[in-house]
Amino acid sequence: MVGRLWSRRAALAALTTTALAATSLTGRGRATADYASRPEQVRGEFLHVWNAYRRFAWGHDELRPLTGGFSEFFAAGHPVGLSIIEALDTLYVMELDSELDTSVAWIEQHLDFGIDADFNVFESIIRLVGGLLAGYLATGNNTLLVRTVDLADRLLPAFASPTGMPYSTVNLRTGAVSGNTPALAEIGTNILEFGTLTRLTGDRKYLDAAKTAQRAVLARRSELDLMGTRLNVDTGVWVDTTDRAPNQPSDSFYEYLWGGWVLFGDHECRDWFHLLDTALTAHAVETYQGHTWYRQIDYRTGALLGRRQSELASFWPEVLGHAGQLPLARAYYDTWTAMLDRFPVLPEEIDYATGTVTNPGNQFRPEYHNAAFDLYLQTSDPYYANTAWRYFEAMRDHARVRNGYTVVDDVTSTPVRLGDLFPAYGFAENFKYLYLMFATTPRFDRTDFYLSTEGKILHGLRQLATLAPPRQADCLSTPGPQIPSITPPQQNSVPNHQT
User: Fold this and answer.
1) Strands (E), 295-335
2) pLDDT, tens digit, for every residue of 142-178?
3) Which CATH number fits domain 9-468: 3.60.40.10, 2.20.25.160, 3.40.50.300, 1.50.10.10?
4) CA–CA gap between residue 319 and residue 325 (Å, rounded)
5) If we measure between CA atoms, which residue out of 449, 375, 317, 444 comes closest to residue 5?
């Protein structure tokens, strides 16, 4: 979800300016619809489900649109308004200011993280910490930053393992931790949120925790520079030695290595990413029956272990494109686009060797839209805009219900069989990617931006008024040192592979 490199701002600005003019677009696709009408269509669909959430689930974590009910994501009986937090920066860029004000007011009046329950650390960071940070960056409302600091401090005990890698869960009231065999993504998907929090507060403890966890994982790579899937954070020993990247549950670990370089200019993160990505490309990428896939392999030997592919990996082309592997990015995106010829909407998982659907659901997934959004802004090729719109129309045809949108339990049935849940991340990702792909809102810088793995805009928001600096006394019990200024890399220190 990255929109720029330090040395490529001017080039990307020229590309995205060209992309806005549908009549001048060239590439593998042609503009097939009136681009000018698309932002309002997307905004209307967002409001269709948002208004249902307001009616049936306000203040709760997630909407159940078929039954007109709600559910809590982290802990039963302990709502934290997850959908509200996930939606903050989307409401801002869509210029839904009244809804944004109402959402911030709910957080000010009701959100309290002193909960005696176990919260998943990974989900709390990317969804709650990230959502509150993006909301603060959009509005400048200091309460949002205060709540972010409070939550992050409650999560930090999870990083106090012998290796510095986080436990899976932490009790937000007591600090008690549990779950000592987290997946790769759970261990390393935190530098963007914690690094941004360090920048805003001046306290290095957040960034230091994230970097310590990353270093601990990289120290345990194999001689082939491949990674397993799960580690014991007490002993540092791999408990699952299959390299499944870029599939879940490894996916965003790699994404955040690249993100640490782009957002903070961290050369170590850049070098780690290239090290692991080079090994993945050499050992895991294959062309199978005309399509590009990532097979599962033994992290020690590179031996083939499986050919299953998760829909969650369909985000990966956007990272490849920014990292200088645009041909591979295009090929892998084309693989997922070809799946749209087979299914009404993408299934959760397939075995590409047999063509068998191994998980027939679709949890209102945003990853394909994520890849299309970034590749469109990277290349100005309308192919990505039009294929993304095709998928949007498919979701509208098959997942839209009277009270919003819902997940699909079986994409292989006719008609598709629906579930009863609108995941909160739908407010943060699907509609936002589509809206920003086509909109020319003054609130978002299309030439210089960064979105987290959960679609939170951590860089690139344009405020209508100057953002007031945080009041440190409100945010920190003891002020920490300022994060050192980061010198941007020299021109061409990362090859420019834009086309």
Assistant:
1) 296-298, 304-306, 308-310
2) 999 999 999 999 999 999 999 999 999 999 999 999 9
3) 1.50.10.10
4) 9
5) 449
